[in-house]
Amino acid sequence: MAEIKSIGLIICILMVLMAYLKQAIPRGKTTYLMKAIISIFILLSIFEGIRNFNFNSLRDLLDSSYAQNDEVWAKSARLIEDGLKKEFTHFLIDEGVMATVESVTVEGNQDAFEIRKVIVSGQDAQTAKNLLAGRYQIGIAYIEVKNE
Question: Which CATH number fits domain 67-146: 2.60.120, 3.30.300, 1.10.530, 3.30.2010?
Fold first, then answer.
């Protein structure tokens, strides 16, 4: 509401200033000056709106029951697990390691997720375990080597 009042005040000041300029400066000379003043006031109102905007209020746009829904966060966890599995697999391929990431398990809530288990298999599974632990700062206890 305060933003609407401040924008309204800026528009009123702008209208008074334009009326004064039309009388003070001869005809035809005011257009560039008016355009410059209008653009300055528009930029000021945009910056003031951005400065006063509460970005945390975007969470309020979602229904609170949606945000607390366990199915939503379970689906998010599955998507994160799939993404981490792909990222870990591409990392191992880039390093030339003969191992694959079979699964990644994460736990957490909407605020934070933690990697709980990574299962690695293949010829160089132990090397893959050490590389993943070092590169992604995962505890070695959370990475399991599956022997084939």
Answer: 3.30.300
